Amino acid sequence: MDRIAHRIERFTQWLMIIGFMVLLWAPLSDQVFDWGPKIDLGEKRNLAGIASLENVSVAEFPDAFEDYYDDRFGLRSMLVRGYRLVTSRLLGLSTEKVLIGEDGWLYYSGPVIDDFMGRRESPYDHFDRWKDKLESWTDWFAERDMTYLFVVAP
Q1: Which residues have C-beta within 8 Å of that of residue 127, sequence separation ≥ 6?
Q2: Cα→Cα distances 56→26, 51, 67, Å
Q3: Is the distance from CB of 41 to CB of 81 less than 8 angstroms?
Q4: Is the pLDDT assigned to residue 40 strictly greater than 80?
Q5: DSSP collapsed to 3 states, 20-45
Q6: What are the extents of the domains in the chain?
Q7: Is 61 helix (H, G, I), strand (E, B) or coil?
Q8: What span, in angstroms and rounded, lies between the C-alpha atoms of 15 and 132?
Q9: What is the rounded distance in angstroms from the CA atom of residue 33 to the CA atom of residue 52?
Q10: What is the rounded CA–CA span in Å between residue 87 and residue 92?
Q11: What letter does residue 121 receive in the DSSP assignment?
């Protein structure tokens, strides 16, 4: 019985080693052979261009190359999508731009939410403060026998 248990233990150890090596080398092999799935992440930015010493100085080259490599890391789109799924579905967390509502509904959490929740000040409050400030300046100048004119240029 000990012999069978030992073989099972050795098999599971080798399986873990092989699995670890596959996970370790998968991104590099995807970069070399381009076999991984291409998932559109909907990023609204341009990916970093390839760095060359003609475009950047020697001191800036490592950072420029790192930016290029980070944008083209093997299996990046699959890893980013997996991260988003784990954080939103399993952990119930969302990005700062999205709120997760009841029944899995997603809501944009930009300034519109503050308006909807009544947390943003009214633009009229802003104008009232401007009016009060301009009146205080007018009074301050009047106390010193000066005329204060507020002129809006076209």
Answers
A1: none
A2: 31, 7, 13
A3: yes
A4: no
A5: HHHHHHHHHHHHHHCCCCCCCCCCCC
A6: 1-35, 121-154
A7: helix
A8: 75
A9: 23
A10: 6
A11: P
24 Cβ contact list (under 8 Å, min separation 6): none
Residue keyed to tokens 């799935």: 37
Instruction: Compute the distance between CA of residue 141 and CA of residue 13 in angstroms, rounded to an integer.
Output: 85
CA distance 21 to 18: 5
Structure tokens at 124: 């009229």
Residues 6+ positions from 37 with CB-CB distance below 8 Å: 77, 78
Mean pLDDT of 12-25: 95
Tokens 């997760």 belong to: 100
Tokens 């799924």 sit at which residue? Answer: 85
| Beta-sheet strands, E only, within 38-78 | none
Task: Look up the pTM and report it.
Answer: 0.50
Average pLDDT, the chain: 83
Question: CA separation (Å) from 107 to 94, 97, 102?
Answer: 10, 8, 10
